């Protein structure tokens, strides 16, 4: 992980296990390049969840800020939460594996959904998102096509999951999609996603 100093911070997350062959990694790099070119003072923190995976959730592996940790918690998990809380922009590479997000990304999400930090329950039982000031951009890479609502409801648990998760904490995520990668359309899917990344609103 690396960082530079700035008034505003971008957290760059990759989760693909495919290294240089990964479409989502190429797209997140293009998104970050677009945003940092528009604002060279933007500080960047990078986390590679495949190279440095967080462990699957247990009470002891939660951040110290999480009620399950009993106030003790895991230092690496607390750092992951602190990075997210400090970021103004979060760019996430999310390939779809077996119809959902990689387990490495799910483990990270388990660190940032923390009562009192990113969401809270009101007296009426309704949830209030506490992270609404952030911009989240997801580079979503999928082997097939999921534009059909029936297909999405039946077998798509990556975009639908991430929309729900970030909505739960008060954020409406943006998606840059590369679809059809395993359906003989890898190059056109990547080209389209890179074009979309280059056209992102910089603010």
Structure description:
- The chain is of the alpha/beta class and 203 residues long.
- The protein has one domain: Rossmann fold (3-Layer(aba) Sandwich).
- It contains six helices and seven strands; from the N terminus they run βαβαβαβββααβα.
- The chain has helices at 23-38, 75-86, 103-112, 149-155, 159-168, 186-198, and strands at residues 9-14, 43-48, 89-95, 119-121, 127-129, 135-142, 174-179.
- The strands form two sheets. Strands 2-1-3-6-7 form a five-stranded parallel sheet, with helices on both faces. Strands 4-5 form a two-stranded antiparallel ribbon.
- Strand 4 and strand 5 (127-129) form a beta hairpin.
- The mean pLDDT is 93.
Spans with pLDDT under 50 lasting ≥5 residues? none
What's the Cα radius of gyration? 17 Å
CATH level 3 topology: Rossmann fold
Strand content: 15-25%
Terminal residue distance: 24 Å
Number of strands: 7
Give the count of helical stretches. Answer: 6
- CATH top level assignment: Alpha Beta
Q: What is the percent of helical residues?
A: 25-40%
Structural class: alpha/beta
- What would the average pLDDT be, to the nearest integer? 93
The major pleated sheet works out as:
5 strands, parallel
Shape call: globular
């Amino acid at each position: 992980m690396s960082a530079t100093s700035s008034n505003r911070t971008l957290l760059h997350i990759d989760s693909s296990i495919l290294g240089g062959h990964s479409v989502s990694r190429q797209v997140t790099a293009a998104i970050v390049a677009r945003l940092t070119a528009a604002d060279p003072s933007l500080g960047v923190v990078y986390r590679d969840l495949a190279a440095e995976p967080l462990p699957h959730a247990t009470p002891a592996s939660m951040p110290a800020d999480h009620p399950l940790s009993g106030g003790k918690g895991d230092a690496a998990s607390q750092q992951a939460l602190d990075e997210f809380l400090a970021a103004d922009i979060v760019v996430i590479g999310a390939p779809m594996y077996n119809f959902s997000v990689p387990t490495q990304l799910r483990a990270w999400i388990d660190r940032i959904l923390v009562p009192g930090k990113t969401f809270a329950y009101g007296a009426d039982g309704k949830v209030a998102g506490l992270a609404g000031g952030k911009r989240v951009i997801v580079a979503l890479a999928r082997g097939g096509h999921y534009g059909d609502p029936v297909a999405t409801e039946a077998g798509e648990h990556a975009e639908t999951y991430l929309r729900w998760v970030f909505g739960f904490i008060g954020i409406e995520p943006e998606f840059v999609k590369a679809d059809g990668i395993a359906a003989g359309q890898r190059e056109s899917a990547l080209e389209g996603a890179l074009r979309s990344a280059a056209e992102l609103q910089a603010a």
